[in-house]
């Protein structure tokens, strides 16, 4: 009997369903607890910024949303690589589940940034490099979702989407370094929050961690849904085949007129 | 809680954030329930999956 490697065992959708059913409740609970602690610190402990006043509170959701917009695309790209190179059975499931989540967090980064920009910059929107590149990321997510839905053959859709997903990964360094490469209205990098005062850094990091765990839980739930959807599709096809096989025995077709 | 002169922007940002996340969570939950119901209905008709194969690519639907 051939022994399976760890990767092969985890690649089995049935085993993934068993493991994720055990892990998922803990992820939801951990995310909820971390976000609750973060929001308590944000609204009751963290001070107002000396320049921005209380509007700095938007940072605690804007920064995690922007981080998860990029992390979501990282998952799409890695999963696409896993599908095209290793033909990992769960890679396309992962890519498909991550795209709408990444799109949602990109939209949230854009909206919360806009609502932060109006009182601080005097405008909701400016076509600077950081904002524009994040908008391009949102369109890229929309393109991935639209491309997948426009191809009926699921295997072909998976490969085409994976190719676009890998090509689009070039947007990530553009977003990250846009504030260094170009003169932007958006503030420069904080060096992973190192330039943020500890009184604001702690709630920011807890918030980022909490929403990251929430993203992972939603991604796992989305993957479970997708595996179930594919099982439903497979069983529906089996039901149709069975019905077609037994059709001549049960009914007689009407004569052609 | 006094959030200063720009409170409306802060509440709007948090409101949109909560609304979008709630919509995504509801979609995930409802989609999962719908798939589970359909799968159970198919299995109740005696249509079973080929679960005995440990490395089935067909289960994930990515096989070419």
How does this model look, in words?
The complex is a heterodimer of chains A (257) and B (64). Chain A is an all-alpha fold and 257 residues long. Chain A is built from 8 helices and no strands. The longest helix of chain A has 53 residues, at 198-250. With 64 residues, chain B is mostly helical. At the A-B interface, helix 2, helix 3, helix 4, helix 6 and helix 8 of A face helix 1 and helix 2 of B.
User: Which regions of chain B contain 5 or more consecutive residues with pLDDT less than 50?
Assistant: 52-64
- 3D shape of chain B: rod-shaped
Instruction: Assign a percent range to the helix content of chain A.
Output: over 70%
Average pLDDT, all residues of chain B: 82
Strand content of chain B: under 5%
Shape of chain A: globular
Tally the helices of chain B: what do you get? 2
Give the tally of β-strands of chain A: 0
Q: What is the helix content of chain B?
A: 55-70%
The SS-based structural class of chain B is: mainly alpha
Main β-sheet of chain B, in a few words?
Answer: none
Taking all Cα atoms into account, the compactness measure Rg of chain B is 22 Å
- The DSSP helix count of chain A reads 8
Radius of gyration of chain A: 23 Å
Order of helices and strands of chain A: HHHHHHHH
Report how far the terminal alpha carbons of chain B are from each other: 58 Å
């Amino acid at each position: 009997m051939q022994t399976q490697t760890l990767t092969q065992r985890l690649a089995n959708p049935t085993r993934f369903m068993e493991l994720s059913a055990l892990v998922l409740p803990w992820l939801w609970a951990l995310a909820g607890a971390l976000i609750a602690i973060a929001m308590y610190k944000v609204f009751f402990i963290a001070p107002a910024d000396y320049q921005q006043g209380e509007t700095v509170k938007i940072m605690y959701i804007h920064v995690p949303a922007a981080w998860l917009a990029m992390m979501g695309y990282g998952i799409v790209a890695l999963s696409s690589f896993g599908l095209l190179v290793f033909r990992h059975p769960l890679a396309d499931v992962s890519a498909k589940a991550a795209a709408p989540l990444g799109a949602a967090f990109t939209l949230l980064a854009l909206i919360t940034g806009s609502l932060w920009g109006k009182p601080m910059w005097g405008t909701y929107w400016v076509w600077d490099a950081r904002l524009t590149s994040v908008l391009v990321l949102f369109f890229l997510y929309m393109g991935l979702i639209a491309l997948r839905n426009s191809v009926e053959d699921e295997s072909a859709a998976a490969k085409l989407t994976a190719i676009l997903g890998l090509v689009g990964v070039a947007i990530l360094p553009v977003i990250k370094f846009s504030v260094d490469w170009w003169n932007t209205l958006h503030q420069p990098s904080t060096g992973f929050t190192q330039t943020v005062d500890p009184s604001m850094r702690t709630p920011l990091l807890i918030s980022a961690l909490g929403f990251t765990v929430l993203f992972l839980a939603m991604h796992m739930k989305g993957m479970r849904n997708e595996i179930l959807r594919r099982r439903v599709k497979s069983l529906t096809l089996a039901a149709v085949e069975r019905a077609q096989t037994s059709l001549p025995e049960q009914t007689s077709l009407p004569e052609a007129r | 809680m006094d959030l200063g002169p720009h409170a409306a922007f802060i509440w709007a940002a948090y409101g949109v954030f909560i609304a979008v996340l709630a919509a995504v969570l509801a979609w995930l939950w409802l989609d999962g329930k719908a798939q589970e119901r359909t799968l159970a209905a198919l299995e109740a008709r005696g249509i079973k999956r080929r679960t005995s194969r440990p490395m089935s690519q067909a289960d994930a639907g990515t096989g070419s």
